[in-house]
Design goal:
By secondary structure, this protein is of the alpha/beta class. The protein is about 45% helix and about 10% strand. β5, α6 and β6 form a beta-alpha-beta unit.
C-alpha cells in the first residue's frame, strides 16, 4: 500500500450516495445478455493518471506527487504501488501502459529492457493478487529526441533499428503479462514539410515495420490483437495514420488488413474533422474496429485536450456503433484522459474516473435500448427499402451495364422526387433515450 490515496475506499455502486460512489455503473447489471463490466471493459491509462505532471506549453508541473519525477527505479516502483492502489479503489478490470510510463529509460537498450522487466515483475505479482488485467501495452516512440523525425519513418536507419528493439521488448512484456492487445501510435510518423521528405519511402518503411511486428507476434505466440491508433496531427504537422479511412488504405496497401485493427480515440476523431461515431461506424463496416480511447476534446481548442467524457448523448452514439459491431472482443474502453492542471488532489483522480464510468454506463444503456427498440434501424431500413426491389438489385448485379441502366430509366420514364431524410425527427428520437 502506497498510502497516497489515504482513506479513500473502493468505489461501490450506490445510486443515492452523497460521497464518492458509482451511481450508474453497476458492473453486474445485465445489458443485452452481458454484464456491464464485460461490455465496457474499462481500463486506466497509466501515463495520464500517474505520469502526467499537470504541465502545459506555458507552465510546468502543478501536481505534487511523491513519485515525481520518477527518474529512478525506486520512484518508478513507488508509482507502481500507487497505481495498483488506485486500480483497487476504482475496480477497473484493465489498465494500459507505455514502457516510458512505467520505468525511466536506461543508458542502453539492455538497461531499458531490464528496467521494464523489473517493473513487470511488480505488475505480475500485483495482478496475481487480484489486480486488473492488461488491456494493452505499447512503446513510447515519440518523446526522446532521437525520434524527432519519427521512428519507423526516420531517415536514419539506426533509429528504425532502435525502435524495433524497443517494440520487441514491449511486446515481450505485454505477452508475458497476458495483454489482450498491443498498440502502435505513430505520434511522429509523418512530416513537417515535403521539402525534406521522401513520402513514398517513409510509407514503405512504416509498412515494413508493421509487417515485422505482425511476424514477431506470430513467432512468439502472442494471441492479442495488434492495434494502430489514428491521429491526424499534433505533434507532427501531417501524420500518416490520419484517420480510419487513411489507416485502412495503408493496411490494404501492405496486405495487413486482416492482421491489424484500430484503437480509435474520440479526441483524435475530432482533430481529424470527424465525429467519434463516424470513425467507429467506418471501422465497423471495414472490419477493423478493435478498441477505443474514451476521452473528449474541448470544442473551443484546436489541440488534444484529453478530457474525461461527460457527454451522455455522444457516448451513447459511440456505444451504439460498438454494439452494432457485436461489442468488444479483445478491446475495451481506455480512459486516455487527464485531470485539469488545477485538479490537484488524489480524490480528483478518483472522481474523474468514477464520473466517466457513470457517463459510459448511461451511454451504453441508452445505446442498448435504442438497438432493442429498433426504431432507428427501422427508419434506416425504410429509407433504403427501394433497393430491395428486383429492378434495383439488378443494377448492382454482375453483368449490369451503365447503358442498360440508363435505357431502363428512359423507357420507364423515371422522374424520382426527393423524400425527407427526417433528420430532426431521428435526433429527437435519440434524445428520448439519453
Amino acid at each position: 500500500m502506497s498510502g497516497y490515496f489515504g482513506p479513500v475506499q473502493p468505489l461501490a455502486y450506490d445510486p443515492d450516495a452523497e460521497g464518492p460512489a458509482l451511481r450508474h455503473y453497476d458492473r453486474d447489471e445485465v445489458v443485452m445478455g452481458k454484464r456491464m463490466e464485460d461490455h465496457l471493459r474499462f481500463a486506466v491509462a497509466y501515463w495520464h493518471s500517474f505520469g502526467w505532471e499537470g504541465g502545459d506549453p506555458f507552465g510546468g508541473r502543478t501536481f505534487d506527487r511523491p513519485w515525481f519525477p520518477a527518474d529512478t527505479m525506486e520512484l518508478a516502483e513507488a508509482r507502481a504501488e500507487a497505481a495498483f492502489d488506485f486500480f483497487r479503489i476504482l475496480g477497473a478490470p484493465f489498465f494500459c501502459f507505455h514502457d516510458h510510463d512505467v520505468r525511466p529509460e536506461g543508458g542502453s537498450l539492455t538497461e531499458s529492457r531490464d528496467r521494464l522487466n523489473r517493473i513487470a515483475d511488480i505488475f505480475e505479482a500485483k495482478m496475481a493478487e487480484g489486480g486488473p488485467r492488461l488491456l494493452w501495452g505499447t512503446a513510447n516512440l515519440f518523446s526522446n529526441r532521437r525520434y524527432m523525425a519519427g521512428a519507423a519513418t526516420n531517415p536514419d536507419p539506426d533509429v528504425f533499428a532502435y525502435a524495433a528493439a524497443t517494440v520487441r521488448d514491449c511486446i515481450d512484456v505485454t505477452h508475458r503479462l497476458g495483454g489482450q492487445n498491443y498498440v502502435l501510435w505513430g505520434g511522429r510518423e509523418g512530416y513537417e514539410t515535403l521539402l525534406n521528405t521522401d513520402l513514398g519511402q517513409e510509407l514503405d518503411h512504416m509498412g515494413r515495420f508493421l509487417s515485422l511486428v505482425v511476424d514477431y507476434k506470430h513467432k512468439i505466440g502472442f494471441k492479442g490483437t495488434i492495434l494502430i491508433e489514428p491521429k491526424p496531427q499534433e505533434p507532427t504537422k501531417h501524420q500518416y495514420d490520419y484517420d480510419v479511412a487513411t489507416v485502412y488504405g495503408f493496411l490494404r496497401r501492405y496486405g495487413l488488413e486482416n492482421e491489424v485493427k484500430l484503437n480509435i480515440e474520440q479526441g483524435h476523431a475530432i482533430l481529424a474533422g470527424h465525429s467519434f461515431e463516424h470513425e467507429l461506424a467506418l471501422a465497423r463496416e471495414l472490419g477493423i474496429l478493435g478498441s477505443i480511447d474514451m476521452n473528449r476534446n474541448d470544442y473551443q481548442s484546436g489541440w488534444d485536450t484529453d478530457q474525461f467524457p461527460n457527454n451522455v448523448p455522444e457516448t451513447a452514439l459511440a456505444y451504439y456503433e460498438i454494439l452494432k459491431a457485436g461489442g468488444f472482443t479483445t478491446g475495451g474502453t481506455n480512459f486516455d484522459s487527464k485531470l485539469r492542471r488545477q485538479s490537484l488532489e488524489p480524490e480528483d483522480l478518483v472522481m474523474a474516473h468514477a464520473g466517466a464510468m457513470d457517463v459510459c454506463a448511461r451511454g451504453l444503456k441508452a445505446a442498448a435500448k435504442m438497438l432493442e427498440d429498433d426504431r432507428l434501424e427501422a427508419a434506416r431500413r425504410d429509407r433504403y427499402a427501394g433497393w430491395n426491389h428486383p429492378e434495383a438489385q439488378a443494377m448492382l448485379a454482375e453483368g449490369a451495364t451503365l447503358e442498360g441502366i440508363a435505357d431502363r430509366a428512359v423507357a420507364d420514364g423515371l422522374d424520382p422526387q426527393p423524400v425527407s431524410g427526417r433528420q430532426e425527427i431521428l435526433e429527437n428520437l435519440v434524445n428520448r433515450y439519453v
